Amino acid sequence: MTLLENTVLRRSRTMDVVTNAIFFNISWFVIVVTQSALIGPAQAVLHLLLHFWLIGRGVAELRLIAVVLVLGIGVDQLMFASGVLSAPGVSLAPVWLSCLWPVFATTLCHAFRGFHDRTVLAVLLGAFGGAGSYVAGARLSEVDIASPVIGTLVLALVWGVLFPLLLKLAAHWVPEHEA
Q1: pTM of the predicted protein model
Q2: Each residue's pLDDT tens digit, 75-124
């Protein structure tokens, strides 16, 4: 590969990371702020369509997103069932909350790709970023964290374990050369 080809490839991957990060944050905000069982799924579908049209990695990444969605719904349901998370008038996690999982899953092969082989950093980012995302989401929505300290620590522990595992799964299922 020539120096020019290498530079273009690096710029392309950098733009993919930036594009993915921007799309993720826009979708996260729309889904959380609207808390809508209609807008949440529509935004998630729009996100996935744009993602796969512009930077997606085909069937392997789609399979990863499906697995993360199922796993994530289970995690959120456990958080609601255990009382770590709650929302007025519901005993299960709301539909819009589940819509965040496929949107998040698109970051595993793009915005967070650089953490695949940096386990300690992935644990820290998962613990602080994952729990922080739930805290921010709770402030912007009707979802409550049962105890500001204990609930946040539980979320940090879950995400500190889950995030690096999901990154390893992404690296295994969607190799870098398929970019």
Answers
A1: 0.91
A2: 999 999 999 999 999 999 999 999 999 999 999 999 999 999 999 999 99
Chain segment 45-78, per-residue pLDDT in tens: 999 999 999 999 999 999 999 999 999 999 999 9
- Domain boundary assignment for the chain: 3-178
The single residue listed with the structure tokens 């799964």 is 169
Please give the Cα distance from 125 to 96 (Å, whole number). 24
Q: In terms of Cα–Cα distance, which of 74, 18, 12, 19 is closest to 47? A: 19
Helical pair 150-173 and 131-140, crossing angle rounded to 10 deg: 120
Query: For residues 30 and 35, what is the distance between their CA atoms, to the nearest angstrom?
Result: 8
CB-CB contact of 151 with 85 (8 Å): yes
